[in-house]
C-alpha cells in the first residue's frame, strides 16, 4: 500500500462516507470531523476517519434500546 493512500482529500472522504463534499467541508470546519490543513486544502488520515465513524456508530442507540 502506498503511503499516499493513508491521506485523503475532501472528495475521497465524501465518497467513503457517502456524503456531499460540502457536508464534509462543513463538518471539518465545525471541528466535528478530524482533519488538517495543508496550505488551503483539507486533508484527512484514513485511520482518523475510520475511528470517527466507529465513534459515531457507538453514539447511536442500539435497536434493542429503541421503543
Q: List the total number of helices.
A: 3
The major β-sheet equals: 3 strands, antiparallel
Unreliable residue runs: none
Topology pattern, helix = H, strand = E: EHHEEH
In angstroms, what separates the terminal alpha carbons?
A: 45 Å
Quick check: average pLDDT? 90
CATH class category label:
Mainly Alpha
How would you briefly describe this protein structure?
46% of the residues lie in helices and 15% in strands. It is built from three helices and three strands, in the order βααββα.
SSE topology:
Elements: E1 7-8, H1 10-17, H2 21-29, E2 36-38, E3 41-45, H3 46-59
Antiparallel strand pairs: 1-3, 2-3
Helix pairs in contact: 1-2
Structural account:
This protein is an alpha+beta fold and 67 residues long. It has a single domain (3-59), classed as Arc Repressor Mutant, subunit A (Orthogonal Bundle). Helices cover 46% and strands 15% of the residues. It has helices spanning 10-17, 21-29, 46-59; strands at residues 7-8, 36-38, 41-45. It has a 3-stranded antiparallel beta sheet. Helix 1 crosses helix 2. The longest helix has 14 residues, at 46-59. The protein starts with 6 loop residues before the first strand and ends in an 8-residue tail after the last helix. The model has no long low-confidence stretch (mean pLDDT 90).
